[in-house]
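Running this now, will post back.
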Amino acid sequence: MIPARNVSKRIEAALKNVRYAGIEKIIVVVNGCQDDTLEVVRRLQDERMTLISFRAPLGFDVPRAIGAQYAYRQGAEHVLFYDGDLIGHHRHELKRLTEDAVRFGIDLGLTDTYGTAHHQDVAHNPLLRLRSSLNRRLGLEPRLGLSNPSHGPHVVSRRLLRLIPRADLAIPPVVLTRAKQLGLRIDALTHIPQARLGSSHKGPVHFEHIRDTIIGDLLEAHCLLDGRVRSREYRGHQFDGYHSKRRFDLLERFADSLQIEPR
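Update: finished.
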């Protein structure tokens, strides 16, 4: 499934990458667009593609959760999450990711976008430090390194979608934590360096908001692992980023409209 917001110049390349990977059915969740993304997707639509459209912006990662709910309802056994602004040259890695997730029965198959990070980089970067700490505490660092579903294409299984609360699907580090707690199969299945993802650059303010969003998500995951009330606060600072703009209400309304069994 592909979330798409203001990516009219990029969505065609993203769709080509996904089609090359052999995905049988594609779900595009267009939301909150101020350009002609919706018209472009409609022009590119074929019998393999389902278009889900919202006038309102859904917020960071909520389109993933909405697409996942639809795919689950349609009986999907595995779902690839792929961003609508990715135009890099990584089709072979994407194909390997999807094929290996199915072949080896992986419930959460991740992309390693960092490779081997220097320990000083991790020590001085709070986001990387929290990622490293979470993976280490989950006992997954030897296999995942710094991989996390917040970043890079990844695949989830039907079993994962059945077991994890739908709202948590919009908070990727929480998905990782719950998957481990549930005994699901997790692995990093391919490596795509950040530069080869080909994601769009939206300026320093957007970067700071994304960073704070992911840091807050990681803090929530650590709280979940500790059995504490989930919080996005650390040393007196609230890491909200785009979190408060996540439309969990629209996610719940959409899921209810599909009459998906409660979990």
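Residues 4 and 84 are 5 Å apart (CA to CA). More later if anyone needs it.
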